[in-house]
Structures are given as C-alpha cells and as structure tokens.
Write a sequence for this structure.
C-alpha cells in the first residue's frame, strides 16, 4: 500500500515510526575509539531467556523495544539458539550493559539485528568501541554485506552513529505496531517523550 501524502491518522494504542535500513558492502576503515580496561564483548551461547530479557529491557525500555518481549521462552530459545544467530554481551565493571546480535541467516550476509547500551553507558564511547568489535567480528566471516536498521523511536543519535560507522541508508519504511505500554509489555512510564495515546 502506498501511504498517501499529508497527515494520516494512527489508531490509538499504536506506535508509528520511520525505519531506515542501512548497509555496508565492504569492510570500513576502523574509527578512532576510546576504551576502558573493564570493557569486554563476549559471545553468549544459548542465552538464558530470563537473563537475556532483563538485559534487553534495561537497554530497550526507553526506546520501546518490544519484539523479543512478545516471544515465549521456547520461541526465544529457538531464535537465540540458532546456529546462524550470535549473541554478544558488552560488560563494563563485570556488569552486562550492552547487547550485539548478529544474524547470519542469509548466505554471505550479516544483519546486526540488535545493537544497544543501557542508558548509563550511552555517550561515553562504549558505543563506538562496541561497533568496532561488531564490525571486526562480522567482517572476519565470508560476508559481502553487513546491514542493520534503526527507527525514529530509537536513540536520536543512532542513525548518525551508524552512518559514521560506514553504513549507507538505502531504504525507508513506516512501521505501525501495538504500543508495548498499552499491551502491558512495558511500563506506562517508558519513553515519556512519546505519549501513550
Ligand atoms: C546507538 C548507540 C549504540 C550509539 O552509541 P553512543 O554511546 O551514543 O556513542 P559513543 O558515545 O560511543 O560514540 C559517539 C561518538 O562520540 C565519541 N566519544 C564519545 N565519548 C568520547 C570520549 N569520552 N572521548 C572521545 N570520544 C568520545 C565516539 O568516539 C564517537 O565518535 P564517532 O561516532 O565520530 O566515531 C547508543 O546511543 C545506544 O545504545 N542507544 C540506545 C539503544 C539504541 O537506540 N540503539 C540503536 C537501535 S538500532
């Protein structure tokens, strides 16, 4: 369906966002980074759903991340346990503070399906450090394309950060979804800058 020009009503109980898809077709130059001795990025094999969801919520609550919250534990184990899916935890001072998920479901490609830090770590250089590691891991595999997407509900700096990382925007979509605060997946107090209507 083509969205008509002008304003379009969004039903109450729904969120709407603009999604930008980005890709890189070759390994980019490494960007300057700062690092701290306590930072690490480690692969987590077959993550425990309870552990994973607690971290996912800490990172994504303010950005209305909901997709993983809709899955049963069994479904989540299936997604995260797939041999084509890799989950990495970013730790600072021994605490899980970030998540990188790499999806190798398409031959020759890698999609960064989730990338984020908890609010306390945003803006201190940990994002650039984590992206440099993610790019290293992804391009150490026989891929020809690395992709990801971000939406206007995500951190406002995310799109620019990805462009500076070497990703090129190539597609824009509108996403309408049940508001996870209206369905009870997230607290009503999440993302107060996006009122529940
Ligand atoms: C998107 C996200 C990962 C970006 O990370 P960030 O923490 O904002 O970015 P950083 O602070 O690491 O880096 C931003 C820039 O500032 C620089 N910087 C930050 N702190 C610095 C410091 N103390 N000294 C020098 N440089 C610094 C970084 O090197 C980087 O530079 P560059 O982009 O020009 O290479 C982060 O905002 C986030 O997790 N947001 C919440 C979840 C989210 O919205 N995820 C995106 C969903 S798709």
């Amino acid at each position: 369906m083509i969205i008509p020009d002008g304003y379009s009503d969004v039903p109450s109980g729904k969120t709407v966002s603009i999604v930008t898809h980005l890709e890189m077709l070759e390994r980019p130059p490494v960007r300057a980074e700062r690092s701290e001795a306590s930072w690490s990025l480690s692969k987590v094999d077959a993550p425990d759903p309870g552990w994973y969801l607690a971290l996912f919520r800490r990172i994504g609550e303010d950005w209305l991340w909901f997709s993983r919250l809709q899955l049963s534990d069994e479904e989540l184990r299936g997604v995260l346990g797939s041999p084509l899916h890799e989950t990495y935890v970013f730790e600072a001072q021994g605490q899980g503070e970030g998540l990188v998920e790499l999806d190798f479901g398409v031959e020759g490609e890698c999609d960064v399906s989730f990338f984020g830090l908890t609010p306390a770590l945003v803006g201190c250089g940990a994002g650039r450090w984590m992206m440099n590691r993610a790019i290293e891991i992804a391009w150490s595999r026989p891929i020809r394309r690395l992709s990801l997407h971000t939406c206007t509900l995500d951190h406002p700096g995310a799109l620019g950060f990805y462009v500076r990382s070497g990703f090129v925007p190539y597609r824009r979509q509108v996403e309408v979804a049940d508001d996870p605060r209206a369905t009870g997946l997230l607290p009503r107090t999440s993302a107060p800058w996006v009122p529940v209507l």
Observations:
- Residues 31, 33-34, 59, 63, 115-117, 122-128, 150, 154-155, 157-158, 161, 164 surround coenzyme A (CB under 6 Å).
- The mean pLDDT is 97.
- The beta strands are 14-24, 40-43, 85-92, 95-103, 109-117, 145-151, 168-178.
